[in-house]
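S1.2 Input.
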Amino acid sequence: MIAAEPDARQTRAVPDWQRELAEAVRDPLELLSLLDLSPADLGPGTTLQLLTEAARDFPLRVPRGFVARMRRGDAADPLLRQVLAAPAELLAVEGYGPDPLDEATARDAPGLLRKYAARVLLVATGACAVHCRYCFRRHFDYGADAADGQPRWTAALEQIAADPGVEEVILSGGDPLALGNARLAALLDRLAQVPHVVRLRIHTRTPIVLPARVDAGLLQALAPWRDRLVVVVHANHANELDAAVLASLQALRSVSSAVLNQSVLLAGVNDDATTLAELSRRLFTAGVLPYYLHQLDRVAGAAHFAVDDVEALRLHAALLATLPGYLVPRLVRENAGAASKTPLHSGAPAAP
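S1.3 Output.
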C-alpha cells in the first residue's frame, strides 16, 4: 500500500517549496501589478474582465520566484507570455480541441497511459507548480482519471506489475514533483519492487519554476534510482534559468543518469534562432542536454502560440548551422496514435 504523506503542519515546518507554492500568484491583476503593467498595456481591447474570463476554466498560477525573473514594464516578456491568461484563449480555432493527443483512447487504467512500446506513462498527480497557457493537458479531467489518492495508483501499479513488457515508467502529470517527498518516495519504492521496470523517467517543469523543490528530501528519494533514472525538465527560454535554477539542475544530475530538457516552440516566446541557441548554451552550463523542441500540441486555447512548420524548420536549420550537434534539440511533433514522436525535416508534409 502507498501511504499518504503525513500532514507537514503536524510533523514539521512546512518546506520552503510548499510555502512558495501556496503563495503563488493566482490573480491576473496582481501579476500585472507586480510587473508595473495594466491590462491596457497588453494591447487594444484587453480588459481585466477578458483576462479573468480567460483564466476561469484554466486558472492562473505562477510562483513569485518565476515572476521575479520577468522584465518589469515589458508586456512582451517571454516568461510572462507563457503564464498570463490571454483573451486569445477564448477564441475557438478549427483543428484545436480539448484532447489533441487523443489520450482518452490510450488509458490502460486510471492514470495510466500507454502510447509507446515497452513504456507507460503514469499520471502521478494533477497538480502543477505553474499553469503554462499552452499546456496540452489544460482540459484533462484529473479528478476522474488521475487523482492523487491510493486507489488510482493501486490500479496503475497493478497493471504495470502484471505486464512484463513494461520496461520503462514515465512519471508525468500535472507534475510528479508537485508530490511531497514522502508520497513520491512511496511511489518510487513500489515501482522499485517491479523487476521488469529497468528505467524510470520523470518529466517535470517544477525545478525550473520552483527550484527550491529540489531539496535534500527529494534527492534522497531519487537516489536509489540513480543508475536508471532520467529527468526531463522543461525550459523554453534562457531567462528562466537563473542561478538558483542552475543549482537545482546540477543537484538533479547527482542522482540521475541524465538530465535532459524539452521545450515547446512558442510564438512570441522563443521563435527566434538566437533565443533558442542561448537556451541550449545556458542549459549546458548546468550539464543539461537539449532533447526535444516540440511543435505545439493543438490544444484548445493555445492556437496563438503556434509557429508554422516552415518557420520551425528554418529555425532548426539555423541551430544546426550555429551549435554543435549535441546542443541541437530534435524538432518533433507528437501525433495521436503514432508509435513515436514524429521528427520534422525538410520535405516532410506540412501540418494539416
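S1.4 Remarks. The chain has two domains: 13-90, 103-343.
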